[in-house]
Amino acid sequence: MSLDPLPPSAWTRRTADHLLSRTSFGGTPAQREALFQLGKTQGIAAAVSSIIDQAVDWSAFPLPTLPPPSDLLESNDRLEAAYDLTEWFLLQMKDGPALAAKMLKFWLDHFPVDLDVIEAQAGFIYFYKHLDVLRTLALGNFGLLLREVSWSEGMIRMLDLDRSRRGQINENFGRELLELFTLGVDGGYTEQDVTHCAEAFTGRSLSETEPFSAYLDELVRGDGEYRRIDPTEKTFLTTEDPANPGIPVPGTLTAIKDPADQLPGDPKDQGDMAIALILEQVQCAEHLGKKIWRYFVGVDPEASLMAELGRQLRDHDYEIAPLLRTIFQSEEFYDEAAIGNQIKDPVDIVISIVKVLEMPLLPRATTYWAMDEMGQNLLHPPTIQGWPEPVAEGNRWMTVEGLLSRINLASLWVHGDHQALRNHLKIPTTGVDAETPYVLPDYETLLPAAIRGADSLNLLIDHLADRVLYLSPIHPRQRQSLIRHMRRKLKGLDRDKVYRRVLQQLLALPQFQMQ
Amino acid sequence: MMGERFFSQELLAASNAGGGSGPIVVVLQLNGGNDALNTVIPYGSADSSIYYGARPTLSIAQAEVLPLDSEYGLHPKLTQLKGLWDLNQLAIINGVGYPNPNLSHFTSFDYWHTAEPNEQVRDGWLGRFFEHQCANSATSLDPTIGLNVGLTETLAFRTKEKSLGVTLKDPAAHRWYGSGLAGEKGDEQALYTELINAPVGGITSKPGLAFVEERARNTMGSLELLGVAVDAQNAPGAAFPTAAFPDTGLGRDLKNIAGMIYADVGTCVYHVEQLGYDTHGSQAELDGDGKPLEGRHAALLEELDGALGAFVSEMKAQGNWDRMLLFTVSEFGRKVIENGSLGTDHGAASSLFVTGGHVQAGFYGQMPSLAETNRIKNHSLAFNVDFRRVYRTVLQEWLGVPEAAISTVLPTAPTSGGFATLPFIST
Fold first, then answer.
1. Is B282 domain-assigned?
2. Which of A399, A408, A421, A478 should one mutate to test binding to chain B, selecting the residue with the greatest count of B CBs within 10 A?
3. Looking at CB atoms within 10 Å, which of A392, B29, B228, B288 has the fewest?
């Protein structure tokens, strides 16, 4: 495995479809054709650039003004707020800059917060702020993102950082920062590193009044008593000895001086120092490189490729966009074995449905409960490790319940019986959602007039199958079965129901679970 | 262990074929690392002063503990477990762990699931049991092999190639809804089943797609079986449930398991989990009297106790108590000392509970020494019972795996403390 670029002669409609599918949740026939033509006429770099260099502009999705936490005491109010937050997130997946949206999903899985853990009332404020950090830096600098996340109110609360104090350390953040967010469980850190890491981040606090922000506690109280921060010098990981390059020596988190002795520019806590030392470790770049490769390619990179990904990340100072550009221009990314071989997560399912069928999202409550049923409630990750991994075999999304929930959702969605869908999902009755219109696929858009009018079911099925299953085509015998069945059904069902039945079956097929 | 095995291999095979007489094992996983020291409390042991000294805020006072004997007692929320102890129906195994303990949730759980600590192994102990010892394990995703009640699959059920058994959360919700059009459901389901069973004529699907295709086939297959089971529970005149299961997460899950047992699905191994034991912060809250008897850990133990108590009652009422063996596992215990946030951080050795119709009650293993000089990994407890001994006991003494075949399920014997079974199962 290497990162050598894809030669121009290897650029085909299939490679264009694959790129669109993995970076942008898929697209319509027109979008697929446009990307292919761009690559063919102006080169692969231009095709990739059209995706990577879209402005990361979220201004169409402003942070909403949230009610004060005291207004979110009733569970009904919190549920409505949960619907809004989930819909806000998914609208960005659907209509925001596509690659940045895919990376926002990646970062939420990498830096998960759970609304129940971070406290249900100010928790919404924390959650929106957390997402805002992740989306702003989605294609930006990982080092900066890491520092911002260590100040994210949601993350501080999620991993008990606000409750850790000198002499009585809570190790949760210190451990997961090393184990999950940066070096990986075999990343060469010791139990003592975990403790020192936790100590380095003492002092981060959450204000209990407007605007509910994170702040750094004072080192010393007015009466001279030390508060929560552990300011002592600590060893941490390793660093390069300037006198002997190539020889690692223990890293140091230098002591924080008393306020009276501090000079302008002196550090006030050791968190940034700890992060700087973490970023120096090869394992940090390799662990992140591996996760990114796995996310977009769907397999784990071999050791030499992982080393190369890590090297590139460090050469670019942990900027994400240059690494992605290299990946999407590489021959390895377009290996036929990888195409159509990744299982979609529930967000991928929902967004790929709305994109290929050119539909709006379902109403907010329905969307929220459908995501929950499929196992990806965005506000409640299963663990601090996030959601199941985006590799194919043994994929934990594909329990029998997981698959059945996707099939049931797609079936009910395209048939348009909103009440049946709400009953199936057991949605609690609230006032707002019942009024939201429920929009069916527009068959005028999906099917050209010639096909709609024609007596030929073959054309209809082929046309819908190409739109929906272009990467993992329908098998010939499946096609025959479908045609035979629909021909029989046309005698009893009206044509409109036949379209829906075909779509229902296509969206239920295993092929649609793949990207 | 002298005398006859209680359940022979023949009975086990009969059980898998859908008979109502074979042994049942329920593995109840406490996710997050249960704080065993506040669950089985050394209120009166030689180490009690160390316990109270190390946990000035979190420790449970002697007056609050439910005494098991003069040294150890249960957390006050565990009233039903205490009742089982008084009936000689509860075994408690102390000091359970493994060498060179790993304090990462995910890694440590992997070791418990694979029964291969400190190895990079990708198959689970129950997966190996199903593969080598169960009659119809050739059919993967057959709920009669094993049922994991949860949202994600467990490594414990995996073989090297695939997952065995079925994972689902709510059998009653396991239905095909289709379009919702009246009278069309059967037709849609039949068409879909036909599509996914269509031979692909020499075109081999890629591994990822092939995996989903197999899932789809097994989903449609299990739909029917589980539908029958749920109907049996809800049929007019059905005597289920007899016990009053609490409406909590674990209460519902154990009720679903009890329902599958009632409906005679034939599954012999159930796996279920209770989430939330990673109590780094706010493990306890002070109650009205200023005692640390409420809060996250107390709520979890209360849920555990209520659900377990109802499950036990239900098994007795169904006449299935003698077939039943349930034991808890957790990926590790927690440190002796409390931390700065009214909580505890990851530890090592832990205690586990075993109950069932043929459980020999009492304490097994040693409660580890709490003395600072004996702590490992930064204030964690040292183990003295390798968890593989617990598994071996269940496999050999309950599920009837011949001693000579144990290595197919537990390939690597512990290197310290021996590998002997523990006598907590009586015949």
1. yes
2. A399
3. B288
- Give how far Cα B249 sits from Cα of A46, A216, B167, B308, B378, Å: 52, 38, 16, 12, 34
Q: A185 to chain B: which residues are within 8 Å by CB?
A: 104, 106-107
DSSP character string of B366-377: -PPP--GGG-BT
Q: How far apart are CA B296 and CA B293, in angstroms?
A: 10
d(CA A117, CA B296): 11
B3, part of any domain: no
Judged by DSSP in three states, B425 sits in strand
What ipTM does this complex have?
A: 0.92
CB < 8 Å to B187, chain A: 489
Most confident option among A296-305, B126-135, B172-181: A296-305
Q: Which two tokens stand for residue A144?
A: 């900066």
Residue in A170, A191, A500 nearest the CB of B280:
A170
Residue B277 has pLDDT above 60, yes or no: yes
User: Is residue A210 domain-resident?
Assistant: yes
Facing residue for A509 by CB, picked from B195, B206, B377: B195
| Total number of domains in chain B | 1
Task: Give the separation between CA A405 and CA A408, rounded to whole angstroms.
Answer: 5
A379 with A115: CB under 8 angstroms? yes
Query: The tokens of A107 are what?
Result: 């970062």
Alpha helices, H only, A375-494: 400-415, 418-425, 443-446, 449-453, 457-468, 476-490
Distance CA A102, CA A106 (A): 6
Q: Does A322 lie in the same domain as A271?
A: no
Which pLDDT band holds residue A441 (cuts at 50, 70, 90)?
Answer: confident
Listed residue (A206, A196, A264) closest to A233, CA to CA: A196
Domain membership of residue B315 as a residue range: 9-409
Burial class (CB in 10 A: 0-12, 13-18, 19+), B30: buried
- What are the residues whose beta carbons fall under 8 Å from the beta carbon of A51, sequence distance 6 or more? A19, A20, A23, A24, A98, A99, A328
For residues B351, A198, B282, B366, the Cα torsion angle rounded to the nearest 10 degrees is 10
CATH number for position B174: 3.40.720
How many structural domains compose chain A? 3
Domain that holds residue A26: 8-53+300-334
Cα A47 to its chain centre, rounded Å, is 23
pLDDT in tens, A320-338: 999 999 999 999 999 999 9
Query: Is residue A248 helix, strand or coil?
Result: strand
pLDDT-above-90 percentage for chain A = 67
Q: Which tens digit of pLDDT belongs to each residue from B44-74? A: 999 999 999 999 999 999 999 999 999 999 9
Tell whether A374 lies on the interface with B, counting CB pairs under 8 A. no
Q: What is the pTM of this model?
A: 0.85
> How far does the CA of residue A334 sit from the closest CA of chain B (Å)?
15
- Nearest one of A81, A120, A68, A25 to A342, comparing CA atoms: A25
